[in-house]
């Protein structure tokens, strides 16, 4: 089908499309980190988990011919990384941030090492659902191709938001995250809850990696992640540990990231380096606007090593 | 960051000399073992199998490995920072490399120049740098291929294939080689139909997968229906463009397996020719040339086999122009020529052949290119 001239409409369209296409990895990693941090631990290693998930998801999808099996494999790898982090941190006098950084480097290194043979082959892609059938404009149709993982992630954000307030599991995670002593007094195994929370966070980070390698941009190479795993960890703080806000923050980052290429494509070509900094400038601006002396760490789990 | 950072090899050398003194005390033999006649080092900025820039160089290095008596040491994913200085020093000191090829553009100044000053007995040849006699050390040099001609031929293919009369270019950084490729691609297409415009999007990075995909989508949203690129690994651009049903002209290496039905042709490197030339000269004890350039005629650059989507008229047109290029004296950049802001660049009658040194300091986009260098 022939594309039609959409001119400046390309910019809002690209921001919308970018928000849908680019946000998913941010969303999954930040939801995963949200679960982990709610239980009172920080896992900075999710960038490594994401890269390893991208590699293992791509490799397994290529070997089995099924993208969904790849996603499962990536989630499984993420569980292993998360559980490893949780187990080391349950040993006495271990700093979770240091372990996270070590695991980040380990995950990336291992993914690069094992991923060499999978850079060249082409693995199957994840399917998407076209929500643009009402439009006769091919660009709109392309922009509204929504990957199933994005929909799952959005539903997961709502579910987690609900579950943290209304389910027993959600409340236990929050108790452990707010007062380890209190949770222990109530008979909950603090380290077990944290280990499981970190493993669940790792699984979501692995899925985020699989989205990168199996859908968008849809190939495995060593430069596949441009730091999504690290930025998403920061997004959790930005989103005040609220899963719904994580979803909003991920959309914002995805859309802002699309601004640079979109503006160049309509002829705003001066200063593109500046436009590429848009997501970070936006974050800073929002941080400054929402600064508050009294409620700076409102919503932060009290057991986090950064709040203690 | 500490202001003075001992490089890895300095630390290792200090440690090694300590060991050596100990070994002397024990009466053990000390000395560097030469396993081969020559050790050659290759440094890549990305992975060796990226379907692109680094793969093209690694294929050249693989050809060097086949020469008897040559040991090849390679390091990939080396950043264009002080890291590459440390890589070069460890190749020289620990592996005994006497010829080093730092292959990425940003390695040249200041990194390779700094290390070359420290090691006057080691030869350094850099890909793409503008080496000039008297300015840069005598043990350094540069080599490059006139791949702009390949992008001109790509442009002809694009000019025949485009129905919207808009073609797109995903570019990394506005350095002279990239600008020459963009301009050549646009001029090639406009030689077919002067109404064609070429939209360029700079990503600002040699390798940034998500942004390259976004850039490709943005170009196609603005109706570009033939896409080419100059980034380190074209795989993402090629796959994204194919997903949107746009035609593709390849770059660096042959990407036709990624999009067999939409791949028109491509401009590929053939570094094996260059590297085996340097290494055989070094082994024969001959002085190495400091400034090596070559194009389609010299075998430094080649075109991908034509794809099924390329029309007979396009094939005939490309074959004819290629014959002119091979015969020598062909110019892509020739007057009268304006830049894309309307300012005159070249007067009628002025023409730069592919070897013209002026092309290596290009800082403009020609008429017909939509985009800006900053």
Features:
heterodimer; A: 308 residues; mainly alpha; globular; B: seven-stranded mixed sheet; six-stranded parallel sheet; 10 helices
Helix content of chain A: 55-70%
Largest sheet of chain B: 7 strands, mixed
- Helical segment count of chain A: 13
Shape of chain B from CA axes? Answer: globular
- What Rg of chain B is obtained from the alpha carbons, in whole angstroms? 22 Å
* Regions with little confidence, pLDDT below 50 for 5+ residues of chain B: 14-36
Find the count of extended strands of chain B (DSSP E, 2+ residues).
17
Q: Biggest interface between protein chains, with counts per chain?
A: A-B, 46 and 45 residues
DSSP strand content of chain B = 15-25%
| Unreliable residue runs of chain A | none
Strand order of the largest sheet of chain A: 1-2
Rg over C-alpha atoms of chain A, rounded to the nearest angstrom = 20 Å
Give me the oligomer status. heterodimer
First CA to last CA of chain B: what distance? 29 Å
**How large is the count of helical segments of chain B?**
10
Overall strand count of chain A: 2
- Portion in strands of chain A: under 5%
* Count of separate structural domains of chain A: 1
């Amino acid at each position: 089908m022939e594309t039609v001239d959409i001119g400046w409409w390309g910019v809002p369209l690209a921001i919308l499309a970018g928000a849908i296409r680019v946000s998913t990895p941010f969303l999954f990693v930040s939801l995963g980190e949200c679960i982990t941090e709610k239980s009172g631990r920080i896992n900075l290693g999710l960038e490594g988990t994401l890269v390893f998930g991208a590699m293992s998801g791509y490799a397994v999808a290529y070997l089995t011919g099924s993208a969904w099996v790849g996603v499962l494999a990536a989630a499984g790898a993420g569980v292993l990384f998360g559980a490893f982090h949780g187990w080391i941190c349950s040993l006495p006098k271990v700093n979770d941030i240091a372990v996270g950084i070590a695991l980040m480097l380990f995950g990336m290194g291992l993914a690069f090492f094992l991923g060499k043979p999978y850079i060249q082959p082409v693995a199957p892609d994840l399917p998407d659902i076209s929500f643009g059938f009402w439009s006769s404009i091919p660009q709109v149709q392309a922009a509204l191709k929504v990957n199933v993982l994005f929909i799952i992630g959005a539903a997961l954000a709502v579910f987690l938001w609900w579950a943290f307030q209304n389910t027993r599991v959600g409340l236990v995670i929050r108790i452990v995250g707010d007062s380890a002593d209190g949770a222990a007094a109530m008979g909950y195994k603090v380290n077990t809850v944290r280990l499981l929370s970190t493993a669940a966070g790792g699984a979501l980070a692995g899925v985020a990696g699989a989205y990168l390698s199996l859908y968008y941009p849809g190939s495995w190479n060593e430069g596949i992640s441009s730091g999504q795993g690290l930025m998403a960890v920061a997004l959790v703080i930005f989103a005040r540990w609220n899963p719904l806000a994580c979803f909003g923050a991920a959309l914002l980052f995805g859309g802002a990231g699309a601004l640079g290429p979109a503006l160049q494509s309509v002829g705003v070509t001066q200063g593109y380096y500046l436009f590429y900094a848009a997501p970070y400038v936006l974050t800073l601006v929002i941080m400054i606007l929402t600064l508050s002396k009294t409620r700076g760490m409102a919503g932060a789990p009290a057991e986090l090593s950064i709040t203690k | 960051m500490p202001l003075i950072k001992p490089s890895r090899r300095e630390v290792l050398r200090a440690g090694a000399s300590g060991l050596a003194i100990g070994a002397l005390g024990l009466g053990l033999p000390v000395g560097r073992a030469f396993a081969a006649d020559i050790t050659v080092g290759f440094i890549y900025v990305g992975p060796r199998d990226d379907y692109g820039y680094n793969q093209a160089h690694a294929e050249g290095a693989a050809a060097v490995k086949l020469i008897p008596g040559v040991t090849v040491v390679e390091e990939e994913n080396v950043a264009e920072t002080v890291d590459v200085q440390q890589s070069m020093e460890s190749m020289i000191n620990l592996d005994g490399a006497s010829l080093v090829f730092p292959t990425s553009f940003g390695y040249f100044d200041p990194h390779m120049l700094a290390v070359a000053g420290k090691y006057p007995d080691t030869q350094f040849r850099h890909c793409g740098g503008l080496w000039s006699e008297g300015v840069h050390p005598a043990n350094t040099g540069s080599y490059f291929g006139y791949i702009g001609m390949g992008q001109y031929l790509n442009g002809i293919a694009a000019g025949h294939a485009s129905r919207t009369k808009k073609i797109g270019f995903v570019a990394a950084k506005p350095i002279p080689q990239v600008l020459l490729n963009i301009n050549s691609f646009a001029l090639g297409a406009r030689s077919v139909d002067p109404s064609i415009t070429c939209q360029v999007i700079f990503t600002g990075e040699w390798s940034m997968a998500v942004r390259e995909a976004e850039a490709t989508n943005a170009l196609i949203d603005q109706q570009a229906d033939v896409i080419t690129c100059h980034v380190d690994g074209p795989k993402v651009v090629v796959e994204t463009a194919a997903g949107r049903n746009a035609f593709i002209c390849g770059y660096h290496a042959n990407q036709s397996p990624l999009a067999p039905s939409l791949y028109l042709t491509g401009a590929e490197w053939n570094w094996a020719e260059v590297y085996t030339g340097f290494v055989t000269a070094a082994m024969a004890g001959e002085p190495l040339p400091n400034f090596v350039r070559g194009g389609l005629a010299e075998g430094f650059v080649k075109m991908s086999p034509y794809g099924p989507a390329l029309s007979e008229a396009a094939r005939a047109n490309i074959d004819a122009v290629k014959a002119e290029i091979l015969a020598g004296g062909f110019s892509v950049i020739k007057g009268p020529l304006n830049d894309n802001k309307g300012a005159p660049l070249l007067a009628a009658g002025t023409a730069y052949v592919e070897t013209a040194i002026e092309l290596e300091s290009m800082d403009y986009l020609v008429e017909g290119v939509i985009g800006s260098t900053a």
